TrEMBL record, chains A, B:
Highest taxon listed in the record's lineage: Bacteria
Cofactors required: Co(2+); Zn(2+)
Metabolic or biological pathway: Amino-acid biosynthesis; L-lysine biosynthesis via DAP pathway; LL-2,6-diaminopimelate from (S)-tetrahydrodipicolinate (succinylase route): step 3/3
InterPro entries recorded: Bact_exopeptidase_dim_dom, Peptidase_M20, Peptidase_M20_dimer, Peptidase_M20A, Succinyl-DAP_deSuclase_DapE
Protein's GO biological process: diaminopimelate biosynthetic process; L-arginine biosynthetic process; lysine biosynthetic process via diaminopimelate
This protein's UniProt keywords: Amino-acid biosynthesis, Cobalt, Diaminopimelate biosynthesis, Hydrolase, Lysine biosynthesis, Metal-binding, Zinc
Regions that span the bilayer: none
EC primary class: hydrolase
Designated name of the protein: Succinyl-diaminopimelate desuccinylase
Organism: Georgenia yuyongxinii
Pfam families with a match to the protein in the record: M20_dimer, Peptidase_M20
EC assignment: 3.5.1.18
Catalytic activity of the protein: N-succinyl-(2S,6S)-2,6-diaminopimelate + H2O = (2S,6S)-2,6-diaminopimelate + succinate
């Protein structure tokens, strides 16, 4: 049983370290979820709900609008990078290093802190801390809530605390996964000429991937960069057998202006002549920066951070809200380029600035730097 | 506890079926080894020895020469092909179908029958029935005997009952396994351009394999066909990560005139520029058909079978004897092209002919067809 420090009085950067130090690789979020549930339950202005390893806390102030602030509590596997540690760079920036520092326990800590601290926010707020974001889409805790408890995630605007380096990122690319399969005929490898080697046939699949040039697509004023690459390859039966199957799994990230059908057609065209099976396909979300609710959020936050909105490359759960017709943006501490990297780290001041900006918007008060 | 039928009076094809029907996948040879030990112990002219699941039976007649007849009792996994069944082909050939029929319980049955039947062979004979041939080389039962009981396998000529379709196959190709590794830099696949895809780099490895043209090499009058191919490929960390490593495992089968160092140098040359790790390397064995002992064996056997010696492609334990300086050949029933195939089957007359030919040589008597 892990315990989190006091959510209100603890510095939010320190709170980030504490949240990171309770390891929560996808599928093993139980301990952290318990700690979050216990910490939030101590605050009487919140109704705390639980489903699996997802914890939801919400105010019931009768405001006419409700904001959803959501973040996933799982991480990719730990790679000798926990517990967290602090380092000061040559230019004096203090950083927090370790698994989850970027993706996305900084955002989780900001939400935990504000959930506890803001007893009377300007709008009703639903705080969502969910499981299984870093794995197959059908395990996603937010997706589960949408199916099982849709009222827990309803709102007029959603903010996802995914890493944006404190900037506002609108929309997101779509994502498609497909298996490109080659087949052959097995034989004992001592008489390899009797078989047909499926792995050798995959040479052309890899050659096309290697030569592929990804596009850049402008949507609602933001430029989305696409990509197509292998994420896995497997083939082989035994060390003395000619393999009769080889599967290259590819991941295509496509601009939100492209439909899912269009994305699939493109991948099938790239691998024309090969057996292609789409295993996972989720459309992107347009930036939505013309929505008045989003505009208000952008104005309040950029007043603190000084930034301008940009595109989100990664597919995020913003797209789940987009599907429900809820405008949604990404806003959180941490350089998204460092997400999943073994050396992920976040400048501690960035965590504090994000907390201050979000507080400014939710509380409608003038924040102090270093909140 | 399984029991084998009487080794002397039972038709050797029927005995093959009985030996097959006691399943003995590598690592699970105990039941069959027990049955073999019990069956041989009933014959007073044999000294029966046991080590693990290897059974050795030998005559001690004081002859001036000793022959070793050896065969492995394990098989690759059963694939819905036991118990055995008989089928007669359109051209009237009676076949025994099932796991082990080819590799190599026909040879085992021939040896069991002659071990029991030949109470006074022309030379002393050591009959070796060993375990763990179909798996990693360091588990091999014959290799274990060489280390632990070298006197059990000493002799002037060794005959391995591996499937040769009743022909004599001299020597064997060598085998080398190597991992060809490409490395890159991981990143989230949503921002693939930040990483370096190791799987894409393997395109060139597969292209070289695909274009590779294997040689044919003449050694002591026999032509050995070589091959080089992938037996496995693996790469990928997670479905949303740019992979930082890809490993292609290749298997090179090389003529016995090539040294192990020469084989390794060749593979390194083919994959020049890539990281190559040799994981398994065993030299071949020259045919040795100029050795007088082998010549005598060839003459006696081909007088019965009518065949001519050919090369052995697969690496077999002939090479273990070659290392000890003991000339060795492969001779046994069953089409080697069907070894490990789910539809392996042996013409029953071929089993009988092999028994007759081996008997002719060992007994120095005129055999009858259908012995």
């Amino acid at each position: 049983m892990a315990t989190l420090p006091d959510l209100v009085s603890t510095d939010v950067a320190e709170l980030t370290a504490a949240v990171c130090d309770v390891a929560s690789v996808s599928g093993e979020e139980g301990t952290l979820a318990d700690a979050i549930e216990a910490a939030l339950a101590a605050h009487g202005h919140l109704e705390v709900l639980r489903d699996g390893d997802t914890v939801v806390a919400r105010t019931r102030l009768g405001r006419d609008r409700r904001v959803v602030v959501a973040g996933h509590i799982d991480t990719v596997p730990v790679k000798d990078n926990l517990p967290t540690w602090r380092r000061t760079t040559a230019d004096g920036t203090e950083e927090l290093w370790g698994r989850g520092a970027v993706d996305m326990k900084g955002g989780v800590a900001v939400a935990l802190h504000l959930a506890a601290a803001l007893t009377a926010p300007r709008w009703d707020v639903t705080w969502v801390f969910y499981d299984h974001e870093e794995v197959e889409a059908d395990l996603n805790g937010l997706g589960r809530l949408v199916r099982v408890h849709p009222d827990w995630v309803r709102g007029d605007l959603a903010v996802l605390g995914e890493p944006t380096a404190g900037g506002i990122e609108g929309g997101c690319n779509g994502t498609l996964r497909a298996e490109v399969r080659t087949t052959g005929r097995t034989a004992h490898s001592a008489r390899a000429w009797r078989g047909e080697n499926a792995i050798h046939k995959a040479a052309e699949v890899l050659a096309r991937l290697s030569a592929y040039e990804a596009g850049e697509v402008e949507v609602d004023g933001l430029v989305y960069r696409e990509s197509l690459g292998a994420v896995a390859v497997r083939g082989g039966i035994a060390m003395n057998m000619v393999p009769d199957e080889c599967v290259v799994t590819v991941n295509y990230r496509f601009a939100p202006s492209r439909s899912t059908a269009g994305a699939e057609a493109h991948v099938r065209e790239v691998f024309d002549g090969f057996d292609v099976t789409v295993t996972d396909l989720a459309g992107g979300a347009r930036p939505g920066l013309d929505d008045p609710l989003v505009t208000g959020f952008v104005a309040a936050v950029t007043a603190v951070t000084g930034g301008v909105p940009g595109p989100k490359y990664g597919w995020t759960d913003v797209a789940r809200f987009a599907e429900l017709g809820v405008p949604a943006v990404n806003f959180g501490p941490g350089d998204p380029m460092l997400a999943h990297a073994d050396d992920e780290r976040v400048p501690v001041d960035q965590v504090r600035t994000c907390a201050a900006a979000l507080r400014a918007w939710l509380a409608g008060e003038a924040p102090e730097r270093g909140d």
